[in-house]
Amino acid sequence: MITTLGLELPTDPRWVNIAEMQLEQILVDHAYCEQKAASACISMIVHFPEKEKLVEVMTPVVAEEWAHFRMVLKELHKRGYKLGRARKDEYVNRLQEIVKKKGDRDEVFLDRLLVCALIEARSCERFKLLSQHIADESLRTFYHELMVSEAGHYRNFIELAEEYLPAEKVRARWKELLLAEAHIMKTLDLRGDRMH
């Protein structure tokens, strides 16, 4: 079983400083990331209802992601910020370009799980950076708690993949996607107004 995040490329350490200068924007983007995470889990349940273990594991994750959305809203309101409109998530859009959407149902299922795992892994890594380096003490605690939760969600997706498909196949595809994600990270602009 894969138990470490294993990202191939760490976030540029300058990201935290840039994000801290755009706190309202990063919180707004984060709120929408949590909303999209809940929606992605619901979509998995809707598309693969025959997979009982998936439904069992994803149902509480939906509730947790939505609770995180509400927590981020609270942080926004506490600071006098408004939610604003959703932004284009270039990171997620680029990941979606490399996943299988048609063809073998098992391969489509695997890619959907692993892309969710990748997004959770990158979020977890960024939450860790914020929890260690942001000046706002209450946000440090906030992001530390979220980091622990996101790491659990990452494991959920990997473990579900290995529940339904051979571990070797899961590991091989995971390695491919990790390399592709690292390439995407290298080509994206370093933005402090985006969580990814």
Automatic annotation (TrEMBL):
Tree of life domain: Bacteria
SUPFAM superfamilies: Ferritin-like (SSF47240)
GO molecular function terms listed in the Swiss-Prot or TrEMBL record: tRNA 2-(methylsulfanyl)-N(6)-isopentenyladenosine(37) hydroxylase activity
N-terminal signal peptide: none
Any one GO BP annotation for this protein: tRNA modification
Pfam families listed in its UniProt record: MiaE
Classification via InterPro entries: Ferritin-like, Ferritin-like_SF, tRNA-Hydrxlase_MiaE
Full protein name: tRNA-(Ms[2]io[6]A)-hydroxylase
